[in-house]
Design a protein that fits this description.
Number of strands: 8
Strand content: 15-25%
Distance between the termini: 120 Å
Structural class: alpha+beta
Number of helices: 7
Helix content: 40-55%
Strand order of the largest sheet: 5-6-8-7
Length: 239
């Protein structure tokens, strides 16, 4: 018995320190895990904050008024519905123009009819997105000093007939230097359009002294030859 009691005393002497070391090791492990978790959480929070602070594209500001600076409000039509009608420009400046299928079909008929009369009609700009219109309008604001002045020659985004897919800017292929200028009215193409465009459902959007107060644009025509197109421009046509 004395031998066993001595054995247990020696065992206890060895076991207690081992238990203490074991407990301390577990505690150290728990503390390490806590600090690592805390560090990871802080890093994640900082990363999320940095991501939220990343610069984002400036949203396109679209008014909800029925008209703005004389331009009527037009929602952007579905781009996938549009039909490609032509390309304009060359090299890096080349772009493909499109229109609503109804307008595209009649425009093609009109172009070929004009060609039979030795007139070269060239589409310059058709369907236009809100983003594209925003860029054009902002350029005019910088050039003319204010939105009101810019709106006399360019519609604010959300207020362009080009959003509908029914509006088209035209020029005379024989006089490229008169593209999108008032000088276009002195071309054979414009004279032909004045006499024949209505036969294909097109009309001049902004004639001289128009009630909207928009600058005269002899190149800008819109299609009104279908019930849907007429409904789109009903407010303007009613004037």
């Amino acid at each position: 018995m004395k031998y066993l009691r001595g054995y247990f005393r020696r065992f206890k002497t060895i076991l207690v320190p081992l238990i203490i070391i074991f407990v301390l090791a577990i505690a150290a492990g728990l503390l390490t895990h806590y600090f690592l978790l805390e560090s990871t959480t802080n890093d994640s929070s900082e990363t999320a904050t940095e991501e939220n602070q990343l610069p984002t594209e400036t949203p396109i500001e679209i008014g909800d008024r029925e008209s703005l600076y004389g331009h009527f409000h037009y929602p952007e039509a579905e781009p996938d519905v549009m039909t490609v009608i032509s390309s304009y420009g060359t090299g890096e400046y080349q772009r493909f123009e499109s229109l609503h299928p109804e307008a595209a079909k009649e425009l093609m008929k009109m172009i070929y009819a004009a060609r039979q009369d030795s007139i070269w009609l060239v589409p310059v700009s058709g369907f236009r997105t809100l983003k594209a219109q925003k860029q054009l309008f902002e350029a005019q604001v910088k050039r003319r000093g204010s939105e009101e002045n810019a709106a006399k020659v360019s519609a604010p985004p959300g207020y362009s007939e080009h959003h509908t897919g029914y509006a088209i800017d035209l020029t005379d292929g024989n006089f490229p230097n008169r593209d999108i200028t008032r000088e276009f009215e002195n071309t054979p193409a414009y004279q032909w359009l004045k006499m024949n465009a209505q036969n294909f459902g097109f009309e001049l959007s902004f004639p001289q002294n128009n009630p909207q107060g928009i600058s005269y644009e002899p190149w800008h025509w819109r299609y009104i030859g279908s019930p849907e197109a007429q409904k789109t421009f009903a407010e303007r046509i009613a004037q």
